[in-house]
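Input.
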Amino acid sequence: GEQHLLAQKTDGSLYALGSNLYGELGIDDDSTGTAPTLIRIASRPNSFAAGGKQSMLIDASGHAWAWGDNGDGQLAQGRDDRLSVPVALATQVRQFALGSSVAYVIREGGSLWAWGDNSDGRLGDGSRRSRATPIRIGDGFAAISTSGTQTFGLKTDGSLWAWGSNDFGQLGLGDEVNRSRPTLVGTGFSAVAAGAEHTLELK
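Output.
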């Protein structure tokens, strides 16, 4: 994250350290974590990420949890106040991507959901209205990658879709026009990684 990090031990336990100004460490105070702080959830984390000022994980049961900054509704709780302890977001989650103020999850079955800041249409719902609760973007997705301002979704058929900021042509669509809905980039892709103002795609 911007001023915090997450680390997992060999026994599966997850720890955080660094700034806790926005609840990034998952504890209910503003102290700085100069020593690792245990993130307390009931099930072992399978995957996790530190965003700008918030964090997210998927546990062994497929539940998504998040905590920290919520100024743009990126914790999907229907409000915008910070949350200093992990809260449940969604079930049956297969994969997720976390930006500084946005989040996306792919659920079992391939449905893609998004929430948070929607500047430049980065949520992909066809609007520029920020969302504090999950909104369904589409179906058939196998992987997701975001820089926080632009996002790429890889579908199970190998087609690659892009949306969000396109100021530098980073969506790969042959122009510099922002997109507020997933737009087809091409087919035959197997992986994608989104950077701040550029993108890598693997065929």
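The CA atoms of residues 100 and 116 lie 9 Å apart.
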